Each structure stands twice: as C-alpha cells, then as structure tokens.
C-alpha cells in the first residue's frame, strides 16, 4: 500500500488547469501533471486490482497511463461541444471485461467533482429496451436493488429522463420513473480527505461494493458475468 495516491497538489493542478486550458500552459505544466495525476493513478489501479475485496473480478483496474483505466485528458474531436483542449478533471473508469465489445456497466471516479459513479451511461436503444423489459418482468428484484438501504444512503440515480415512458409500456407500472431513464447511472460524493488518504483503494472498493445489487441486476439482464 502506498503512502498516498492523489494529494492536495493534484487538486491544485486541476484548479489551475480549469483557469487556463490552453495548450502552451498545459505543456509548461506537463511534469506537474505527470507527478500529481498520471503517475499516482496507475499506482492506485494496481493496488485496487490486487485487493481481495474487489467487488468482482470481471471489472478491470488497468494500471496503464494510456489505454488503461485512466481516461485521456484531451477532449474529444471536432464534434465535442466544449472546444477547450483539455478536461479540467481526472476521469477514471473500471470497465467490465466485455466493455470494449458490447454495452456493459462500469465503475467511475471523477476527481474534481469528487464523485463516484456506477452503471451504464447513455447506451443504444436496444440495450435500454432490454433493461426496461427486465424492470417490468422482474420489478420486485429491480426495486429491491434500487432501494437497497446501504446503496440508497450513498448513491442517487441521476441522468436525463424522457418526459413520458416509451409508448409500449403501461403508465401505472411500479417503476415507471425508471422506464423513462436515458441511462442507468448512480452517483455518490467522495470527499477530498478520502481521495487523498492512503486508504483510498479500500475506500473505493468499499463504496463500489454498496452498488453490488444494482450492478448484479444490470449484468444479469445483459448476460454478463458478475
């Protein structure tokens, strides 16, 4: 276990980046980014990957600076709405082992907004229909997972919803609000103190384990190993 992973200096770098995101400024601070973000992140992933308490072996903590669990800081291509060249937060994803090939739920960490996430972000309509059908057919199991006390004390289901449920679904279903969702992502806050703690891997695994019921439901619906 490391002394620490992210530090207050990591947050200072992200604040400075948010104030000035031009390329020249970023290049001047490249070593700072390397020291405070890109080096500690893979160390975190390595320790999570070997944690016996990890929620499931089918979710990957990949300790690489490129192509692993640390998402790139450069923004997307010409179709991105935000034209600034760099993201002002550190985004981390522990994806399902099948996540490169098919829609699959994952675990997420956003350092800047200080939030954890779990679930399936805006996927294709066929996958959403499959989930909605399962919510109808197994509504008791879905509601039990969604309203699990340990989960619901920490996580909140967020994201955009349709104004009305899809036309093929009866409006008086017990989980009608969930049938309107455009994604199935739950968010929980995490403090700076916990993010900069030497116990951060255990903190993350502990928080993610609270989401096991809803993650298990989604994986079963999508016929993925959990």
Protein model, in words:
There is one protein chain. The chain is α+β, with helices and mostly antiparallel strands and 226 residues long. The protein has eleven helices and five strands, in the order H-H-H-H-E-E-E-H-H-H-E-H-E-H-H-H. The model has no long low-confidence stretch (mean pLDDT 87).
- How much helix, percentage-wise, in residues? 40-55%
Q: Give Rg in angstroms.
A: 19 Å
Which class of secondary structure composition applies to the elements? Answer: alpha+beta
Largest β sheet strand count, sense and barrel closure? 5 strands, antiparallel
Domains (count): 1
Series of H and E elements: HHHHEEEHHHEHEHHH
Query: Overall pLDDT, averaged?
Result: 87
Number of helices: 11
- Percent in strands: 5-15%
Summarize the structure.
This protein is 41% helix and 12% strand. It is an alpha+beta fold and 226 residues long. It is globular and about 55 Å long.
Which key phrases capture this entry?
11 helices, 226 residues, alpha+beta, 5-stranded antiparallel beta sheet, 41% helix, 5 strands
Give the secondary structure arrangement, pairings included.
Elements: H1 8-19, H2 23-28, H3 30-38, H4 40-49, E1 90-95, E2 106-111, E3 115-120, H5 125-137, H6 139-146, H7 149-154, E4 156-158, H8 176-179, E5 184-189, H9 192-195, H10 200-210, H11 212-221
Antiparallel strand pairs: 1-2, 2-3, 3-5, 4-5
